[in-house]
Amino acid sequence: MEHLFGQEWEITPAGGVTGKAYFARCGGQQLFLKKNSSPFLAVLSAEGIVPKLIWTKRLENGDVVSAQHWLEGRELKPHEMVKSRVAQLMCKIHSSQPLLSMLERIGIKPSSPEMIMKEIQIRLDEDTLKHREVLSSLQFLQENMAKVNHNHYVVCHGDVNHNNWLLSKENELFLIDWDGAMIGDPAIDLGMLLYKYIDKSEWQAWLSDYGLTFTPNLQLRMKWYVIAQMLLSIQWDKETNRLLEMEAGLTDLTKFLL
Q1: Which CATH number covers residue 10?
Q2: Is residue 49 scored above 70 in pLDDT?
Q3: Among residues 14, 67, 153, 250, which one has the fewest Cβ atoms lying within 10 Å of its Cβ?
Q4: Partners of 65 in the beta sheet?
Q5: 102 within 8 A of 41, measured Cβ to Cβ
Q6: Which position among 159, 185, 199, 237 bears the catalytic label?
Q7: Is a pLDDT exceeding 90 seen at residue 193?
Q8: Is 109 in the same domain as 55?
Q9: How many domains does the chain have?
């Protein structure tokens, strides 16, 4: 990475699960670099959903490095997820035809309930299946899979945790870390966001800011997808020895099933 810049630049890892992100600093200039990011990043930048993309370069070894403006800012706090601007940015993402067209062009297929259920059945191991909450969740998913089919597919982020929402010092809001982007029911994002961060008494108002009416069908779809996502997350926490997070996930499953 260092040979892209002069010796006066300081290149440091930016952390994250993939290890492909870096900070580049020189004097007052700062960039956020990422290896082998999807061409989807350019459309996200053009739509104003992520910080501005400055350039993309291909290295001799075939790696592609992208550089974005590094913005001073902070992650949203959990209690801030109720704000109307979060709902409005989520709506903008789900309504974006350029985002959808780009994912389709790079070969992303819609994630149907059947596909997600198949992934869960493949991924969950014997130890995870011993938990009562997991078995109850699987029963709920199987019993309701036919009821959650939805023919309006959009671009979903797939990981709308508060730490992926960036508020800049200029008061601009961005949703970052798009490695798990998919095409699917908007309830994939909405369910995780509402169940995790927003009191049920405020769901109707939040969804009104988003542009939807809260209906029993939407509630069922959100519940189905949030439980599906939690099962995959619990299995990943187990595989990566994040046992405290796994226990918290099992507790959340019990609440979400109510």
Answers
A1: 3.30.200.20
A2: yes
A3: 14
A4: 35, 57
A5: no
A6: 159
A7: yes
A8: no
A9: 2
Q: Are 231 and 220 in contact (CB under 8 A)?
A: no
Domain identity same for 194 and 130: yes
The 3-class secondary structure across 202-232, one letter per residue, is HHHHHHHHHCCCCCHHHHHHHHHHHHHHHHH
Query: What tokens were used for 141?
Result: 């998913």
What's the CA gap between 222 and 208, in Å, rounded? 16
252 labelled catalytic: no
Q: Which helix (H) or strand (E) holds 25?
A: strand 21-26
21-26/64-69 β-pairing: unpaired
Q: pTM of the predicted model, to two decimals?
A: 0.87
Confirm if 146 and 112 have CB atoms less than 8 A apart. no
Q: Are residues 58 and 81 in the same domain?
A: no
pLDDT digit string, tens, across residues 74-133: 999 999 999 999 999 999 999 999 999 999 999 999 999 999 999 999 999 999 999 999
